[in-house]
Amino acid sequence: MRLAHKLVDATFAERAFFCNSGAEANEAAFKLARRVAHDRFGPEKHEIIATVNSFHGRTLFTVSVGGQPKYSDGFGPKITGISHVPYNDLEALKAQITDKTCAVVIEPIQGESGVVPADKAYLQGARELCDQHNALLIFDEVQTGVGRTGELFAYMHYGVTPDILTSAKSLGGGFPIAAMLTTEALAKHLAVGTHGTTYGGNPLGCAVAAAVLDVVNTPEVLAGVKAKHERFKTRLEKIGQQYGLFTQVRGMGLLIGCVLSDAWKGKAKDIFNAAEKEGLMVLQAGPDVVRFAPSLVVEDADIDEGLDRFERAAAALTKA
Q: Are 241 and 276 spatial neighbours (Cβ–Cβ below 8 Å)?
């Protein structure tokens, strides 16, 4: 209850459903969207629109909604009634959405496919289209939530409120817990027995997540995330230019993607390996983007030391 109150007090939501992983939170969100549409409008209204290259989990439902066939092929018939449109393309969404659509699912920043932030007009337009067609807007904030972007949740940067929001990963600071947040009017469509979880909302997970929120949801930490973003961005742009590695440094807060230049396209793994040789762990978001997602409370000295190592890796690579 304490954790639910903290999340409700800090967001648009009035109800929280706790589970164990991002996939479970998204599974619950998609089931809720279909149940709401079924109850209010009948079984015809069940279609879900997601975006190309999205990632929403590895259960059969969530992997079908995710827009990456490499994760969903080879497991038998896919769940039907799901379509995919290009990210950040409002016209494509407008052309696809109908009165049979029960939900539109968007990551405010596409994580796995390259740290691509949504345009404000795109999210605003998606909100309006959902309202026109009685569809629910779902934000998958598994990667962007709980302070990662410099606000508690990324939707707050945009001023666009979803009907359902999913959170995991950082909610537990590494401990397994996830949440689906929604309004009271929608939540009542998943009555006891229609959906459930064995370990969701367990006392240990909730105690950990409550402690995480007490640290992260403070002006000091959120302002620190924004300041650290600038520290990263300034230095990474310099390194990118000096060594011809990146064309762009994008993202929000401490979710940063460095887009590789044409000369280095497809070689994110080589950069990952070179950094490892310098005793530095970086991430990749697809073959063309190097991703940085450090601790929200990383010290400036550690950022500088890490980027020194990254520069040494860049120098070694470009020499080779």
A: no
Residue 73 CA to its chain's centroid (Å): 22
- Given the residues 55, 232, 292, 310, the one annotated as active site: 55
55 is known as an active-site residue? yes
Q: Residue 14: phi, psi to the nearest 5?
A: -120, -15
Q: How far apart are CA 248 and CA 285, in angstroms?
A: 14
- Of 17, 61, 139, 140, the catalytic one is 140
CA distances to 74, 113, 255 from 303, in Å: 41, 24, 14
Q: Give φ, ψ of 36 to 5 degrees.
A: -60, -50
Please list the pLDDT of the chain residue by residue as tens digits (320 residues).
Answer: 899 999 999 999 999 999 999 999 999 999 999 999 999 999 999 999 999 999 999 999 999 999 889 989 999 999 999 999 999 999 999 999 999 999 999 999 998 889 999 999 999 999 999 999 999 999 999 999 999 999 999 999 999 999 999 999 999 999 999 999 999 999 999 988 899 999 999 999 999 999 999 999 999 999 999 999 999 999 999 999 999 999 999 999 999 999 999 999 999 999 999 999 999 999 999 899 999 999 999 999 999 999 999 999 999 998 87
Q: Which of 169, 267, 292, 310 is catalytic?
A: 169
